[in-house]
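If I may wish for something, please sit down with the protein I am sending here and say whether tokens and residues agree:
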Amino acid sequence: MAETAALFGKKVLVPKEPKYLGCDLADSITVDDVIAWKRKNERGLVVSYVNTSADVKAVSDYVCTSANCLEVVKALPDVPILLVPDLNLGEYVKLLSGRDIVTWKGTCRVHAGITKDKVLAVSSRYPGAELLIHPECPAARELFGASGVRVASTQGMVKIATSSPSRDFVVATEVGMVDRLKREVPGKNFIPVSEEGVCPFMKLISLDDILASIEGGFYEISLPLGVAERARRAIVRTFELLGIEVRA
């Protein structure tokens, strides 16, 4: 995410050396993987999830988020499409779009463990609760079309909880999202599917790290010019595909 911000000319500082940051979902796809697929599918298009490295974005055609991935795929021409790196997000988009897209083998270790059975086991204790499920979870497609199920990005969950008349919500994503929902949508009850659903990569930076950086200095994200230009172009191309104005 820090790399993505740096693509647009922002000075991005982080409390730890970048080589110590990252996540196994992003690491599950490499530049060589993308190039190898493109060589076998010359007309094909590669859509990379925002949770990929700048290097991978630079060899991709489009960059999506969990909120707009379906819209991006549906807007593409009838050619082979590779969606990387999250398997569950890809399979969910494949189900809803009806497109014969190729998915990758990567998964988020937290979301991959949130299955239909786990969601239903928790929701059975809260009759009438709405189910907020992140599309990186297998449960998103396993419960597709079920009553009370809302599949959404994290920002989408906030919007749904804010506008919904429901008081109770079972939340199927990283457990830290429950804290955000409680803070931004007070007066409602948010129940995590799993209290153990903690992403270790999101917790790599501690308050002690931030304090140490304030006292001793931060690390600046630096990207090779060619990589930054190509990755930025993939993002801008996505905005153009969706009809979103890009300001210089």
